[in-house]
């Protein structure tokens, strides 16, 4: 299985188009699914990975699953890379994530996250390394 990893800094134009990194397109394909992320970032999945995720949501009890399905699937859009390798992020998703001109695309195994670069840098500064270490030790690393 190919593994998405690393962070690429990109610029977004006024129309909401951004270059989606080649190394991620090579694994995910030219067509991806973009949706809201919990931390006010955007999540990017291959269509297959997004389908598997939705299958898991549908297995949940209705009371739990319906809001999750509404959040992730209700806001999801297909984005296909153009000849320049750019994908279009709709205004509603840009607003959700607070995306401005400078963005970061981060590979996280089976998905990517798209962050406003300044927000990601601020989040990194606030990272509690002790809590992270405790969590890592909890899984035996």
Automatic annotation (TrEMBL):
Main location: cytoplasm
Keyword list, A-Z: Cytoplasm, DNA-binding, Repeat, Transcription, Transcription regulation
Superkingdom of this protein's organism: Bacteria
GO cellular component: cytoplasm; nucleoid
Localisation: Cytoplasm, Nucleoid
Keyword Cytoplasm tagged: yes
GO MF terms held by the record: DNA-binding transcription factor activity; transcription cis-regulatory region binding
GO biological process, one term: negative regulation of DNA-templated transcription initiation
Location of the SpoVT-AbrB domain: 7-49, 76-119
Pfam family, one: MraZ
Subunit note: Forms oligomers.
Family: Belongs to the MraZ family.
Protein name as annotated: Transcriptional regulator MraZ
Species in which this protein is naturally found: Ruminococcus albus 8
